[in-house]
Amino acid sequence: MIGTYNDGYSTGLIPESQFKISPSGLHSFLRNRYEWYKTHILGEDAFVASTGSKLGTLLHHLNEQYLLDREVTFSDINEYIESLIDMDNIDTSFIINQYPIISKMMHKYLDEVKQSKFETEKYIIHQLTDNVLVSGSVDLIQGHKVIDYKYTQKKPRGDKMSFQYWIQTLTYAYILNKQGYNITEIELWYMTPNEVLKTKTNASARYIQNHIITQDDLDIIENILYLCADTMEHAFAKPEDSYILFCDYRLKHNPPNFSRYTENKKTKPRW
Predict the structure, then answer these.
(1) Is the dihedral of CA 64, 158, 52, 24 positive or negative?
(2) Measured between alpha carbons, how far is 87 from 38 in angstroms, rounded to an integer?
(3) Using one digit for the tens of pLDDT, what is the confidence trace for 107-159?
(4) Which residue in 226, 256, 233 sits closest to 243, CA to CA?
(5) Which pTM was predicted?
(6) pLDDT-derived band of residue 267, with 50, 70 and 90 as boundaries?
(7) How many helices (H) and strands (E) does the chain have?
(8) SS3 for 173?
């Protein structure tokens, strides 16, 4: 089903007793610890859906199905779009207009991918500590490269990835290399609508940002991941310290309950 998100828990890949670090949210652990706590521990997702994010979800699905030679019917797409009609700030007419143009543009690049060794939407997991793991779904693995699709209504500035996307894709590469892959590059494919290009023809574009991975990169990501994991293990063992760990003095008098991650540890992960 279009728009269905695999968080690892709902599919049974990750036991409820394991705390999951998300590669896409790892940057906020460093930049804004309190927001990270609210989002990833309390579950207060601050993300607000937009026309761009919903179009991006559809394009991700179409890319995956095209690579796997699976048909996506108009009824499937219409069902997804109809589910958005009553949502605030979602311009379904823009989505209907743009998705065929961008998807067709992507086909020529995906056809090249089909000629090589690839995997799409692979869910990956790596255990860090007893109670903490890192996991996520990789858009595309092509040879020695991790590729992540991004929908954007603005042309990317320069060739350098943003800190957020650099950490996200590098985390995927780190996990895969721990599993025996040899990932040496990370790459962002920005899918851009024709309106951004201001052309009279029905054209859209793919912009690429590429980064060659160094050992320093992998060391940095490993340090960040274990800093995050050790922070959580400390919080599990001493909840009374949470107000310091997560930058919220209110937690000193009302510490979180982390019993979910410290009790009933008989269940073993499936990997």
Answers:
(1) positive
(2) 24
(3) 999 999 999 999 999 999 999 999 999 999 999 999 999 999 999 888 777 88
(4) 256
(5) 0.92
(6) very low
(7) 10, 6
(8) helix
Residue type, 111: D
Quickly state the pLDDT bin for 49 (edges 50, 70, 90): confident
Contact 16, 9 (CB under 8 A): yes
Share of the chain above pLDDT 90, in %: 74
> Residue ranges per domain, the chain?
15-31+119-271, 48-115
Alpha helices in 147-208 (DSSP H): 163-178, 194-197
Question: d(Cα 234, Cα 241) in Å, to the nearest integer?
Answer: 8
- Give yes or no for a contact between 19 and 267, defined as CB atoms under 8 angstroms apart: no
β-bridge pairing 19-21 and 132-142: parallel
Tokens 């008098």 belong to 253
What burial class does residue 212 get, using C-beta atoms within 10 Å of its C-beta: 0-12 exposed, 13-18 middle, 19+ buried?
A: exposed
Of the options 1.10.357, 3.90.320, 3.30.1490, 1.10.12, the CATH number for the domain spanning 15-31+119-271:
3.90.320
Q: What does DSSP say about strands 205-212 and 185-192: parallel, antiparallel, or unpaired?
A: antiparallel
Parallel/antiparallel/unpaired status of strands 19-21 and 118-127: unpaired
SS3 1: coil
DSSP-derived secondary structure for 201-268? SS--EEEEEEEE--HHHHHHHHHHHHHHHHHHHHHHH-GGGHHHHTT-GGGGTS----HHHHS-TTPP
Sign of the torsion formed by the C-alpha atoms of 132, 181, 169 and 114? negative
